[in-house]
Amino acid sequence: MSQKNYSSLSKLSGYSFPVYLSAGTEDRAQKIAKRCEGAYGFLRTTLAFEAQVCILVLAPEHWKEYTGSARYGVPQTTDARTLVVAGRDSELWQMIVPPPETLSPLAAQAMREVYAQSDGSLSVAPYMNLLAVHEIGHLYLDQATGKFDFKLPRRWLVELYCNLCLHAYVAALEPEQLPALETFPQTIVDLGFAHLPHHTLNKFEELYAGMPPQNFIWYLSKLHVAAKRLYDSRGVEILPRVWKMLLNSSEGESDAQVAERLRAEVHHEAKRVLTAWPA
Ligand SMILES: [Zn+2]
After folding, report:
1. Can you give the CATH number for the domain in which 142 is found?
2. Distance from CA of residue 137 to its chain's centroid?
């Protein structure tokens, strides 16, 4: 893979992969690099595959240059090897927090317990900062298939797999982070989807990240709750099963074929992610 020019960034040493960062993001870059090192080893063992990883931890002034997008804060991969995350909190992360008055008293309390900052405001930064591991899941899949942004047989299934990578990693290596990982997506799912323009899996395939951020977060949250349920039913062994299913995917599989493969190759519960999804 070509070596990019990161001359406007500095480099962290001491990790199994290159980590580049913007000035002023050192603390978060160290934490993210340490987390990614753990996830890298965990996935290498669990998936029996070794990916190449390069991590960029960026301040807002470098975001557009390296991602091509003006929207600061969305963790993403920019090629089959490179993962880009925010080194500072993003306004976007505030936008996706549901206003407390829309939540049940129990949900509002759970959100406060997990995400309240010293000034009393809520920040889902602890959740967003975990998503680097989801993105490493994409890098593993892209490299194993040789296709950047691999999306077969369905994009939603790839996102489910990445969330499973994230959930299994946190459960195994950072269990104290489980509340930060689970509370926000569960709250979003509990709010339902009547206020959102899209909710079907077909719409997700069609629009993917081209929908409003709140709507995309709803899909990602629902797929997180599904990943947690799968993990809780069979433990870490569910992850290599989904991985193998994705590697053996081809274009043109019907929903009925995908559902049957999920039942036969993953778990009967996995089939329900598709068959019980709201139509
Ligand atoms: Zn993803």
Report:
1. 1.10.390.10
2. 8
Residue 5: what pLDDT? 85
Domain assignment present for residue 235? The answer is: yes
Per-residue confidence (pLDDT) for residue 1, from 0 to 100: 44
Q: Cβ neighbours of residue 40 under 8 Å, at least 6 residues apart? A: 16, 17, 51, 53, 136
Q: Which tens digit of pLDDT belongs to each residue from 181-218?
A: 999 999 999 999 999 999 999 999 999 999 999 999 99
Q: Please say if the pLDDT value at position 2 is more than 80.
A: no
Number of domains composing the chain: 1
The strand ranges marked E within the chain are: 10-12, 19-21, 54-58, 76-77, 82-86
Is the Cβ–Cβ distance between 164 and 230 less than 8 Å?
yes
4 vs 99, more confident: 99
Q: Tell me the CA–centroid distance for residue 159 and ligand 1, in Å.
A: 5
Mean pLDDT of 53-59: 98
- Please tell me the distance between residue 219's alpha carbon and the centre of ligand 1 in angstroms: 11
Please indicate, yes or no, if residue 54 is contained in any of the structural domains: yes
Report CA(158)–ligand 1 centroid distance (Å). Answer: 7
Domain that residue 17 falls in: 10-92+124-275
Tell me whether residue 201 is in a domain: yes
208: tokens are: 């993917």
Residue 226 CA to ligand 1 centre (angstroms): 14
Instruction: For residue 62, tell me if it sits in a domain.
Output: yes
Q: What is the torsional sign of CA 259, 237, 17, 52?
A: negative
Residue 31: name the closest of 10, 15, 51 by CA: 15
Residue 7 alpha carbon to ligand 1 centre in Å:
28
Tokens found for residue 257: 């074929």
Question: Ligand 1 center to residue 132 CA distance, Å?
Answer: 10
